[in-house]
Amino acid sequence: MAMITIDEQRCKGCGLCTIACAQKLLVLSDKINNQGYTPARINATDRCTGCALCAEICPDVAIAVFR
Amino acid sequence: MQQVFKRPTSLKDVQTHFCSGCHHGTIHRLVAEAIDKYGVQERTIGVASVGCSVFLYGYFDIDVVEAPHGRASAVATGVKRAKPENFVFTYQGDGDLAAIGTAEIIHAANRGEDITVFFVNNTTYGMTGGQMAPTTLVGQKTSTSPYGRNKAKDGAPVRMAELLAQLEGVAFSARVAVNSPKNLIDAKKQIQKAFQYQVEGKGFSFIEVLSACPTNWGMNPLAANERVGTEMIDYFKLGVFKNL
Ligand SMILES: Cc1ncc(C[n+]2csc(CCOP(=O)(O)OP(=O)(O)O)c2C)c(N)n1
Ligand code: SF4
Ligand code: SF4
Ligand code: SF4
Ligand SMILES: [Mg+2]
């Protein structure tokens, strides 16, 4: 069992997490946050391995990982 | 379930002013993680430089001295000599360290000051609008090299990690990148090693981190990240150049 949370207001929509995730679970959403960016969101939560690579690469420390 | 990845204690829980995809944020986090790992938060003094990382004091939960442009390693020399029991690091950009601050860094390194230097190389003067730096790649267009850096006129980009490794006073010198999970994990290791050198009193440690500046490169964050892994690493090879 693993899961991540994404702080949608902290996220700057850079997309780096989307290329770091080997499972390709992360995408940028269409909505716009308080900063004017489109934050990342996770698809298929159940496939998350909790590897934390998305969180490691995030320049804005917007991702928390639980295992 | 337990939280396996969280914000380091030494990094304040605030939003940064960095542009989307700027690697300064990642590098801040790695430095803060190392401060936590060695348990030195209460006795760490950071020396900030002038550039996009000028707000170091706003992001790190430690004491910070603000140095004039280029002078961070000279200021850190004074801080460390006055307070040898403290952990002292500088955080400097390439415009700061490799241009206006060349004299200060070379002599601090040559004297073997017991400090740790984080050198963030993004091949440009980020804060002031993307002017050419000594680290700008040949052919790279900047606001002051609109036709691209010309090697015959401007010289070749300076490789600081290799250059400083030549000096006897330097105990540790390495170059890392944070553009991919693999490089990032290695960067984390080397940054922690640089800390260990000072914690053990082994002398001057230097870490060059290749960094993206999407804004001044005129690229989106993913393209800028990609450029680090291709053009930049091609010229600025990753590795440990000294490890005494
Ligand atoms: C004495 C002095 N000269 C020039 C400046 C203008 N200035 C501010 S930041 C900067 C360059 C910063 O570039 P870099 O060190 O590479 O940091 P980056 O923003 O790219 O991280 C310059 C020239 C200044 N503040 N002080
Ligand atoms: S923790 Fe790993 S598997 Fe889960 S979303 Fe992040 S990168 Fe993907
Ligand atoms: S890496 Fe961080 S800031 Fe960038 S899109 Fe992903 S969560 Fe957002
Ligand atoms: S201008 Fe460049 S170095 Fe400065 S915050 Fe933006 S991306 Fe980062
Ligand atoms: Mg710079």
Helix content of chain B: 25-40%
What CATH architecture of chain B do you see? 3-Layer(aba) Sandwich
Strand order, main sheet of chain A: write it out.
1-4
Shape call of chain B = globular
User: Which segments of chain B are poorly predicted (pLDDT under 50) over 5 or more consecutive residues?
Assistant: none
> What is the structural class of chain A?
alpha+beta
Mean pLDDT of chain A, to the nearest integer, reads: 97
Number of helices of chain A: 2
- Architecture of chain A in CATH? 2-Layer Sandwich
Overall SS class of chain B: alpha/beta
* Estimated helix fraction of chain A: 10-25%
Largest interface (CB within 8 Å) is between: A-B, 29 and 29 residues
Largest sheet of chain A: 2 strands, antiparallel
Query: Which value, in Å, is the CA radius of gyration of chain A?
Result: 11 Å
Work out the radius of gyration of chain B: 17 Å
CATH fold-type name of chain A:
Alpha-Beta Plaits
What is CATH's topology name of chain B?
Rossmann fold
Explain what the structure shows.
The complex is a heterodimer of chains A (67) and B (244). Chain A has one domain: Alpha-Beta Plaits (2-Layer Sandwich), CATH 3.30.70. Chain A has two helices and four strands; from the N terminus they run E-H-E-E-H-E. Chain A has helices at residues 16-20, 53-57, and strands at 3-6, 26-28, 40-42, 63-66. The longest helix of chain A has 5 residues, at 16-20. Chain B has a seven-stranded mixed β-sheet with strand order 3-2-4-5-7-6-8, sandwiched between helices. In chain B, 39% of the residues lie in helices and 18% in strands. Chain B has ten helices and eight strands. Chain B has helices at 24-37, 56-59, 72-82, 94-100, 102-111, 151-154, 160-165, 181-199, 214-217, 221-235; strands at 3-5, 44-48, 63-66, 87-93, 116-121, 170-177, 204-210, 239-243. In chain B, strand 6, helix 8 and strand 7 (204-210) form a beta-alpha-beta unit. Chain B has 244 residues and is α/β, with parallel strands linked by helices. The A-B interface holds A 1-3, 9-10, 12-16, 19-20, 35, 37, 50, 52-53, 55-61, 63-67 and B 1-7, 11, 15-16, 18-26, 29, 178, 180-181, 184-185, 214, 221-222, 225. Bound molecules: thiamine diphosphate, iron/sulfur cluster (3 copies) and magnesium ion (MG). One iron/sulfur cluster binds next to helix 9 of chain B.
